[in-house]
Amino acid sequence: MSDDLYRELILDHYRHPSNFGHLKDATGKYRDSNSNCGDVIQMEVRVKDGKIDDVMFTGVGCAVCIASASLLTENVKGKTVEKALEMGEPDVLGLLGLKSITPERGKCAMLPLKVLKMSLLQGQKQA
Amino acid sequence: MRSYLVESSELVHRIRHDFPILSRLENGKRLVYLDSAATSQRPVQVINAVKHFYEQMNSNVHRGLYEMSEEATQAYEDARSNIASFVGAKPEELVFTRNATEALNLVAYSWGRANVREGDVIVTTEMEHHSNFLPWKLLATEKNAKLEVVRITDEGLLDKGCLEEKLKLGPKIVAITHASNVLGTINDAKAIARKAKDAGAVCVLDGAQSVPHMPVNVKEIGCDFMAFSGHKMLGPMGIGGLYGRYELLEDMPPFLTGGEMIKEVHIGEVNWNDVPYKFEAGTPNVEGAIGLSEAVNYLRNPGMNWVRSHEKELTAYALSLMANESSVHVYGPLDAEKRGGVISFNIDSVHAHDVAQILDTEGITIRSGHHCAMPIMDRYGIPAAARASFYIYNDKEDVEALIQGIKKVKRVFSVE
Ligand SMILES: Cc1ncc(COP(=O)(O)O)c(C=O)c1O
């Protein structure tokens, strides 16, 4: 399964991630890390009328983590906050084109979604 | 030299036979176990000793008056003597703990709380495992004492000038690792213990990465305390030791309280038990002690001088091959004389996690991450590192497999 992990999709998004950087007028921002591996992801979102208007991320991480963040930010633009908050592991694996993942690497794959949700919730609290 | 090599490889061949796990497959490939710095494997002799305890004498120690319990108590205390002598200590100076972490916490909690006062100085270093850093940081915070951290050089050696500076502050405690679990650096424990003593400090040595890999004698070194873990030296998990100089242990208040660690308890008055039992509250890990004693016997056979020279040879070989690999960066001293069999490295633009995962597809198990030493990661400005570590059952073939694995990582990530 691991050889599977390093297919072009993941490697491409790792080398050239989409939406990498900072966002002007973010309505929500959150940063978190995986304590065991040193992956760090920060998400900055701008929500307008209940929809994700724009989202950018920064951070360091392994190929799975960075590709997940890149694919996720592409995917959620234009989505309602409600829909984004409903996303889970199957959605992330789907974006990465994986059927399954080991528990340890699962943490890398899921960190961006976790951070995205927190940034959305934080934005709601402040609104 | 040549005859040594031949003998050595025959010996490793025989040793490998004693480790049942080495014949399992990893991802369908021959298991190349390169993570002994995290935990070693156990020979069948150790596994059998634990089994024998449960099958033949399982009972609580220091309590029963019946034959079987006396046998268990005897085996437990024999284990203590044997393990104590392995590190040059007297039996009563060896406290059984769960691991090195618990041993270091015991010193900080018990000796530290009784002796450190506001404004005192505690010295530790930038190359510590968190378990020899956090207990001191906490103690300093609690007591309003100052934690002074000795820096490391770019090469990964302790900055001697910085150490001298810190010692001038008249510290109460100097807590330092004997061998780094990330950089491999072996510190001159004897010189540091003497300097600490001259400065009026107690010297706490973290022997988690030295006791398994080289001859260590606490009396020759002259440290006041030393911590180590059984699971890193062929023993079971959940058993470790704290050496403490007798006079110090005797004066220290207990760590955990409960059964076993008292002589008399009355509602108005308590009498603590003698050293080392004062520090062993509750039913101890008897199978662990017995297993670790067997592990020590196992190591005595090739001998710790052989263990050290075998690992030095593998390390020098690995370092020479890695030096030929472009885009591979090794941390720590490049001279195998100055380091143990632990090699941390990164490959340009590849995260350590991905290195470990791709190596695993080839059956090669290494560790990746911050190795519980985040200050070192900060020092080199890296989020994580990959780490390969060697032990008595590794051979040149394992080192060559590692290099082939590294080449594969570079191919997958198109690194030049
Ligand atoms: C240098 C060093 N000190 C302390 C420890 C802690 O050992 P344990 O987890 O067995 O308590 C380790 C383990 O990785 C280590 O490498």
Give a written overview of the molecule.
The complex is a heterodimer of chains A (127) and B (416). With 127 residues, chain A is an alpha+beta fold. In chain A, 50% of the residues lie in helices and 20% in strands. Chain A is built from six helices and three strands, in the order H-H-E-E-E-H-H-H-H. Chain A has helices at 2-5, 8-15, 63-76, 81-86, 89-96, 103-126, and strands spanning 28-33, 40-48, 51-60. A three-stranded antiparallel sheet of chain A has the order 1-2-3, covered by helices on one side. In chain A, strand 2 and strand 3 form a beta hairpin. Chain A is globular and about 40 Å long. Chain B has 416 residues and is an alpha/beta fold. Chain B has two domains: 2-40 and 302-412, Alpha-Beta Complex (Aspartate Aminotransferase, domain 1), CATH 3.90.1150; 48-300, 3-Layer(aba) Sandwich (Aspartate Aminotransferase, domain 2). Chain B has helices at 2-17, 44-56, 67-86, 100-115, 134-143, 160-167, 189-198, 218-221, 246-251, 286-300, 304-323, 352-361, 374-380, 396-412, and strands at residues 25-26, 29-30, 32-33, 94-97, 121-125, 146-150, 173-177, 202-206, 225-229, 240-244, 262-265, 270-272, 328-330, 342-347, 364-365, 367-369, 385-389. A seven-stranded mixed sheet of chain B has the order 4-10-9-8-7-5-6, sandwiched between helices. A four-stranded antiparallel sheet of chain B has the order 13-14-17-16, with helices on one face. In chain B, helix 3 (67-86) packs across helix 10 and helix 12 (352-361) crosses helix 14 (396-412). Chain B is globular. At the A-B interface, helix 1 and helix 3 of A face helix 12 of B. Pyridoxal-5'-phosphate binds next to helix 4 of chain B. Residues 99-101, 129, 131-132, 177, 181, 206, 208-209, 229, 372 of chain B line the site of pyridoxal-5'-phosphate (PLP).
